[in-house]
Predict the 3D structure of the following.
Amino acid sequence: MSSAALNEAELRAIEAEHAEGLTSQQLVDVFQRHGVNFSEANLRRYVQLELVPRSRRVGTKGKHSGSRGVYPVRAVRRINTIKRLMGERYTLEEIQDKFLTFKDSIETLDEALADLLALFETRLESQPPTAQRQRLADELTSLKGSAGALLKAVHRFEKLIVSAGGARRPRGGGAASPTELL
């Protein structure tokens, strides 16, 4: 097994297959099935470091069935990013500081906006067709555009601020730039 990351097509297929989330065992299986070295111990460590979102408890049908922990499907991309960066020889601490500082907040914002807009839409659809409803529908369309623009700007700014975070540290004891040799 390697530590190589999944490609975009593999990620999309996994996200489509597991839209409701994955258990810890399913996460491990998904990566191992694609030849990526990953274990439940890795998952626990990533969760402890807050690199991967925590699971939520989901009840199962049937008497005395209890519940199981389900990780959001976005955990697949997060783990994949971690594995890719580790393959580039970054430490978990460097990954946490440089690359994933803002991810949870941005993902929470994205999900909260989507949920709020869906609630607005549901409420609007329950109203009788009137001129006021049409004005509200037009306003909601505008609001959706603004929300999309906000998220796009947030993602763009995150990339800018992360890339401004400093030069990559040298690997293997080499100099970071030619001027360091002088």
